[in-house]
Amino acid sequence: MEIEDDSRATTYTTLAAGPDVRHELEIRRSRFITVLRRSPDEETARSLVSDLRREFHDARHHCSAFVIGPDRMVQRSSDDGEPSGTAGIPMLEALIKRETAPQVTDLSDVSVVVVRYFGGILLGAGGLVRAYSESVSSALESAPLVNRRRLRLCAVEVPHAEAGRLENELRGAGYVMAETGYEARHTILRLALADNPAEIAKAQGRLASLTAGSVELRPEGTEWIDMPV
């Protein structure tokens, strides 16, 4: 799917596609059940709260936080009845301050809910802050992550007879190949390149050397693609 994007960030880290991540802690007899969900938009993030309110309908608190977008511009949190500032904000900070690589904090498109069953022992404001922060951090330890990169799709028209050789040469050089198209007289090879002019120019130079300058790249749209961390 082609997506035009004007975000400043061209890469960030998020949860791998798949089921929600769950983790549970018991702190002074209170149960803290943490659920992480990949959430590309607010609707998906808020649906996690709704889902868990139904599943854990007898719990006292369903505190939540989420961060969304390549630039992490959308950030929300809720204490859901806990003393102000003791749950939602520590949870949000656990998300946005999470290091995904040394000195890199770029986690986004993630929502989290911590369901608390009160165990009868008051934790105090400081204890609640630590408990909610630790719940999210511990869940993230077991969460599968991917690097999400914005790539520029570029097309090149080549004769059918040359397409296989050229595609193999490009793959061998480390280029990511996107969907191939076929027309009456040409094969349309598509490359997914880092979305910056230097990478596009480098790819054009590689193509020129492989085809004696007979083909040119045609920039198309951009697409966000999951890459292994």
What can you tell me about this protein's structure?
With 229 residues, this protein is of the alpha+beta class. The protein contains 5 helices and 11 strands. The strands form 2 sheets. Strands 1, 7, 8, 9, 10 and 11 form a 6-stranded antiparallel sheet that branches. A 5-stranded antiparallel sheet has the order 2-3-6-4-5, with helices on both faces. The longest helix has 18 residues, at 124-141. The mean pLDDT is 93.
Question: What topology emerges from the helices and strands here?
Answer:
Layout lengths: L10 E5 L5 E7 L2 E9 L3 H14 L5 E8 L5 E5 L9 H9 L13 E8 L6 H18 L3 E15 H13 L3 E2 L3 E2 L3 E9 L2 H15 L6 E11 L1
Antiparallel strand pairs: 1-7, 2-3, 3-6, 4-5, 4-6, 7-10, 7-11, 8-10, 9-10
Helix pairs in contact: 2-3
In short, what is this structure?
The chain is of the alpha+beta class and 229 residues long.
